[in-house]
Amino acid sequence: MDNLTHSLTGFALARSGFDRFCPRATLLMILAANAPDADIVALRGGPLRYLEWHRGYSHSLLCLPLVALLPVLAVAVIYRERLPWTRAWLLCCAGVASHLLIDWTNSYGVRFMLPFSSAWFHLDLNGLYDGWICVVLLFAALWPILARLVSSEIGERPPGGRGTAAFALTFFVLFDLARAVLHQRAIAQLEARLYEEAAPLQTAALPEPFTPFRWTGVVETADSYRVNTVNTLGNLDPQAAEVFYKPASLQAIENAKLTEPFRYFLYFARFPVWSEAPTAVDRDQGTRVDLTDLRFGIPWAGSFHCIALENSRHEVIRSWFTYGSGVGQP
C-alpha cells in the first residue's frame, strides 16, 4: 500500500505498546514499516528496472531479517548512541513484517518466496491505498495531540494514545476480515455465470479505495476478458461488462513479446490485454502495440503499460514500459 499507510501503521504499532520495548521505538517502527520500499533506488535504472525489483527481494521472507537491520543502523547513525541491538532488531522485524502483510492484502501482490519461487501472492482486499484505513490510522495518530491540547486547557492529565492506537489496529484487522467476506461474495457472483456460453477460466474482484461494497470484477474466458462493476449489495449485470477480445497470433504482437519490457510485463500481469493501432514510424507507416494489465486500467487509460513501435515490416524499432497510460507518447 502507500507509504503513508505503512508509516501510520508503524506509528500505531509503536504507540500500542511496542514503544516500551526499546529506546527510539517509534522512529524505528516507522522506518521499519517502510524499509522494504528501499527498492525505490531501482528507479535510477528507469521504470522497467523498478518494476522488476519492486516487491521482490526486499519483500521476501528470506530477506526480512536483513531488511530489518536498515532502520536499526539508520537510527544508530542519526542519534550516535548505543541501542539495545537485539531488541531494536526484533522491533524492526515486526515493523517489516507489517509492511509485507499489508502489501499482501492488495491487488499488486508481493513475492514472499524469492529466491525459491517467483510467484506473486495477492489477496485483493485493498487497493494501493484505502480511504477508510488511512482515515482511521490518521485519527489514531492525531487524536493524542488534540486531546493533549484540550487537557492542557482544563488541567487534566493528557491521554497516552495507546487506546486509540489499539483501536486503529483492531479496526484495520476487522475491516479486512469483513472485506474478505465481501470479496468472496463478489467472486461468487462472477463465477456463477456463463459468458457467451463460456465458463470463466479465471476471475478476480479488485477493491475500490472508498467503498468495501463495490468491486471491479475481471473475468477471463477462452477468447476474452470482461470488466464489470460488482456490487455485493445487489445483482451482477453481465451485459454491462466491457469486453476485450484476445487477439489472434499476429506478427506485430509476437515480435513485441520478444522484447525485454514485454517479456517481463507478461510475467507480472494477471490480465494482459493487447491492442494495436497504425502509427507513423520513422516517416513510414508502422504499428503501435500496447499491452496493459486490467488490474490497473484498460487500454489507453489507467496505468502500467508496455508500448512497442514497429515499422512496416513489423520490426520493433523501440519498446518501453511506462507507469502512465501511454497516451500522448510516440
Provide a concise account of the structure shown:
Helix content is 41%, strand content 19%.
Please give a structural write-up:
Helix content is 41%, strand content 19%. The two termini are 31 Å apart. Strands 1-2-3-4 form a four-stranded antiparallel sheet, covered by helices on one side. The chain has a four-stranded antiparallel sheet with strand order 5-6-7-8, with helices on one face. A hairpin with a 5-residue loop joins strand 7 and strand 8 (316-322). The chain has helices at residues 3-15, 25-34, 47-53, 64-67, 69-79, 85-104, 131-154, 162-191, 251-257, 260-268; strands at residues 202-208, 211-220, 224-231, 242-245, 272-281, 284-293, 305-310, 316-322. The protein contains ten helices and eight strands. Helix 1 (3-15) packs antiparallel against helix 2 (25-34) and helix 1 (3-15) packs across helix 8.
